Amino acid sequence: ENGVQVLEELRLTRQPWSCPHGRPTVLRLSERDLAHAFGRRSTRDLARGRDVVKGR
Fold this sequence. Notes:
Blueprint: H1 2-11, H2 31-37, H3 43-48
């Protein structure tokens, strides 16, 4: 719920895609990016909860 509120408030700002210093405030991540970040073999493994290394 808080995350949705933050995004809604961000959407209402003048420049929602960058902070006052010009840095990005939003990042686009694909399922593949997320799988890699969590050490998954593929996006199919995200739903199955399988890690690259067994026993993790």
